[in-house]
């Protein structure tokens, strides 16, 4: 089957090739009747525009890349949905790449997206020492970090005040009367995790509470690994009365492990998460957590990236945005039960 061309559409619609081109590029100065004839000819001939050829002329593909650490984590999935919906409204498509929190996968994802000629990239999970982000930024490529930041001060980012959020969570538990508070962390190579851990430690010191290394999980973001760590910790005589998790997903693993030990929440164990994913507010879960204002954060990152893409070549200040956390008190926290 021969490829349909603009000439074929012009012939069937009985208009000039330039008119067909104006309709394809959505120019407003085309009569409605003429536009209708061209669109009917496109439909009849089953024409598909050569976007690659067009992008070579405009130097734009109207495509963005989004790199996430774990698409099965509801925080990333929900944020991606928000970004994709808004991008489509603004005339852009989004290609998602999942790294499984592996640095080499992140580097590969960047190369793959560049090979697909995306106009810009949002990175939602990057190690704080990542050189790839700096390389892209220094090359003048449109890139912004979302829910993540790196040690390079010039990189663009939209993040939460993670340390402040962690202190808020800890203050809430201490004010309820908890003194034995465990922390489910994650790899400290991620700056947001590192900052939440720092907030946990600072809060302990502020309230005159001892730091117990056995109360801290620092492994990978693994539901199963957290589950078994918590189960073992709850078997100890000196077990915590509350657990603060660095993400809502890990908080659910904590609740699962507690249930496996026959403990009731919050009567026997208080739990606080971090993210405020949609399911956390479900009546049957009611997870007390720190809200990252995920919709606001996602939209800010997406809209700033598109602004960078559309103003390419113009000098602009770096984007450094830090959002304020919010404590969402629900039903997984309460006063500690005396452990005998």
UniProtKB/TrEMBL annotation:
Any one Gene Ontology molecular-function term assigned to this protein's record: DNA-binding transcription factor activity
Signal peptide location: none
Tagged with keyword Transcription regulation: yes
Domain HTH lacI-type residue range list: 4-58
Name of a matching Pfam family: LacI
SUPFAM superfamilies (alphabetical): lambda repressor-like DNA-binding domains, Periplasmic binding protein-like I
Keywords for this protein: DNA-binding, Transcription, Transcription regulation
Gene3D superfamilies: 3.40.50.2300, lambda repressor-like DNA-binding domains
Entry-linked SMART domains: HTH_LACI (SM00354)
Keyword DNA-binding: yes
InterPro entries: HTH_LacI, LacI/GalR-like_sensor, Lambda_DNA-bd_dom_sf, Peripla_BP_I
Protein name: LacI family transcriptional regulator
């Amino acid at each position: 089957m021969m490829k349909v061309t603009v000439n074929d559409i012009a012939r069937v619609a009985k208009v000039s090739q330039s008119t067909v081109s104006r309709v394809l590029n959505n120019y407003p100065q085309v009569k409605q009747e003429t536009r209708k004839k061209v669109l009917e000819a496109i439909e009849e001939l089953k024409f598909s525009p050569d976007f690659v050829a067009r992008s070579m002329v405009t130097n734009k593909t109207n495509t963005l890349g989004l790199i996430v650490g774990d698409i099965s984590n509801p925080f990333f999935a929900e944020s991606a949905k928000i970004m994709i919906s808004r991008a489509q409204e603004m005339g852009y498509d989004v290609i998602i790449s999942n790294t499984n929190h592996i640095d080499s996968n992140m580097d590969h994802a960047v190369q793959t997206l560049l090979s697909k000629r995306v106009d810009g990239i949002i990175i939602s999970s990057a190690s704080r020492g990542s050189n790839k982000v700096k390389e892209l930024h220094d090359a003048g490529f449109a890139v912004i970090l979302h829910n993540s930041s790196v040690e390079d001060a010039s990189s663009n980012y939209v993040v939460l005040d993670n340390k402040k959020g962690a202190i808020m969570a800890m203050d809430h538990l201490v004010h309820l009367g908890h003194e034995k508070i465990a922390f489910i962390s994650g790899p400290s190579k991620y700056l947001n995790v590192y900052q939440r851990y720092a907030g946990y430690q600072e809060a302990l010191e502020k309230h005159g509470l001892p730091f117990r290394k056995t109360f801290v999980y620092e492994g990978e973001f693994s539901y199963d690994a957290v589950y078994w760590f918590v189960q073992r910790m709850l078997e100890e005589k000196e077990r915590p009365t509350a657990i603060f998790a660095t993400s809502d997903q890990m908080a659910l693993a904590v609740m699962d492990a507690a249930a496996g030990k026959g403990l009731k929440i919050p009567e026997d164990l208080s739990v606080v998460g971090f993210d405020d994913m949609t399911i956390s507010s479900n009546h049957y879960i009611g997870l007390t957590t720190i809200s990252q204002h995920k919709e606001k954060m996602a939209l800010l990152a997406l809209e700033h990236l598109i602004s960078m893409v559309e103003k390419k070549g113009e000098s602009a200040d770096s984007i450094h945005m830090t959002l304020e956390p919010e404590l969402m008190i629900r039903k997984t926290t309460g006063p500690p039960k005396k452990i005998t």
